[in-house]
Amino acid sequence: MLRRTTGPGFWCECWTQNLDGQQPPTLFGAYDACDAVEANNWVATILRTISPALDTAACAEAWERLYDHRIDTRRALLRREPWAVSITHASTRITWTVRPVLFLPLAHRQGSELPLCTSDFKPRTP
């Protein structure tokens, strides 16, 4: 059954950009978070995961964001304000953005008949 209300949440994105200016930024990944805590944790988890592979300056910047700016980040998200953090590693800038959104409800498919073309889909085999 289709709900008639929207739900608040956050749309999180990770963008990469080569600093030589030859190419536009590239969307690396996206995530839909249900609340501010989940959005903040998404960014924090990625920063913790990649920090060992970063150069010294980028690693220090990542850990500064994780610890020194964590309260400011959480407050901004709780106020439903857009938030972003960037770090630069070698010649690549990585930017995480978090924006408040209203998610539209989707109809589930229980009890519905799917179009005939859905049975034509065959997954590719390696």
Return residue spans where pLDDT drops below 50 for at least 5 consecutive residues. Answer: none
Spatially, the strands of the biggest sheet line up as 2-1-4-3
Q: What is the string of SSEs from the N terminus onward? A: EEHHHEE
Please tell me the overall pLDDT.
Answer: 84
Tell me the number of helical segments per DSSP (H or I, 4 or more residues long).
3
What shape does the CA trace take?
globular
Strand count: 4
Structural class comes to alpha+beta
Determine Rg (CA atoms, Å).
Answer: 19 Å
What share of residues are in beta strands? 25-35%
Main beta sheet strand tally, sense and closure: 4 strands, antiparallel
Q: Which range best describes the helical content: under 10%, 10-25%, 25-40%, 40-55%, 55-70% or over 70%? A: 25-40%
Quickly count the domains: 1
Q: Separation of termini?
A: 37 Å
Question: How would you describe what is shown here?
Answer:
By secondary structure, this protein is of the alpha+beta class. The protein has one domain. The chain is 29% helix and 31% strand. It is built from three helices and four strands. It has helices at 36-50, 56-67, 70-78; strands spanning 7-18, 26-33, 83-89, 92-103. The chain has a four-stranded antiparallel sheet. Strand 3 and strand 4 (92-103) form a beta hairpin. Helix 1 runs antiparallel to helix 3. The two termini are 37 Å apart. The model has no long low-confidence stretch (mean pLDDT 84).
